[in-house]
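lol ok so funny story. i was supposed to be doing the assay writeup but got distracted and ended up predicting the structure for this chain instead. priorities right. anyway since i did it might as well share w the group, maybe its usefull for someone
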Amino acid sequence: MIQTLLEIFFVSTKLGFTSFGGPIAHLGYFHEEYVRKRKWMDEKSYADLVALCQFLPGPASSQVGIGIGVMRSGALGGIVAFIGFTFPSVVALILFALLLHQFDLTHASWIHGLKIVAAAVVAQAIISMAQKLTPDLNRKAIALFALVGTLLWQTAFTQVGVIVISAIIGFFLYKHQSENVDSKVQFPISRRFAIFCLALFFGLLIFLPILRQMTSSSWIAMFDSFYRSGSLVFGGGHVVLPLLEREFVPTGWVSKETFLAGYGAAQAVPGPLFTFAAYLGAVMHGRLGGIVATAAIFLPAILLIFGTLPFWNSLRHNPKIKGALMGVNAAVVGILISAFYNPIWTSSILSPVDFALAAILFSMLVFWKLPPWIIVLAGAFGGTLMVFF
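and the output, tada:
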């Protein structure tokens, strides 16, 4: 048990130090590490878990990591996986908040190199997942629909709507078909515990604003703001940033300049973008504030993934649901391609030199099969050299 937890912590921490590029890129890193390299899950189980987490509010990539930890060692494994993946960026952003007036890290040239790393990683993930999840013309069409829909209408709820429509299409197209590979993944969480987690999620969502009005505690107000933001965000980490700005800048808790400086730093560190909360909490209440803010914004994601995983196998293996999941999995490919173009490609490939570096990094990852941490270092070094071109 302890050995398994240590293994989970080691692997997730390595990903926490090397997973640059935002939530879509994280799914690429996870796929490479957990599915292709360690084979903790098969391709379809990973795709289904990604599809489930896309349905839930909160940081989808972090929820996928928690789900994989749960599969390996129960709820404690999920917590360990979350801590390992999250704490490197939490520590980095708290330190940045404390040293904000001494160093300016937001315009360093190596940050652009890390964005190009994300482009290479996501391209590799798209190719790998598309081969498995869109083998026929119908599923290719669903992926195209998801690509066009999420690319042309970029709102917080478009992604959820596309997934729901794709599930309906998949249900009618594939309800009488079965897939050749039928896997069953065990999640050692009881349904009673899952129901408790779901009840706690909704209870806190209702009770915290009431408690905030009854008291004048700035800590409770801060916890409520972060918890509510983490509970109501669909679409990943990039969507939570403007929500947090509306929560904390107009109230005067954080100045606009300080907020934007932290926003830039959040793009430069690995791990989930939700750890931007650690920066804001540290600005308001020091190191302890950073830790409390991190716990508050991620707590809804943890409660939701614990509350839904025990019901996952029965749903995904139900003949009436399997066709819908086939449609959703195809839609995930389209969503990945959409995110690959915007924001990853549009913010990273700005010149022929950028494309050349991306081609080199992609070749190192796909053809020479070098580990992701080497790709990250090569991208940062390449970004630094770009100032001479």
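The chain has a mean pLDDT of 85. Residues 1-177+190-343 form one domain.
back to the writeup now i swear
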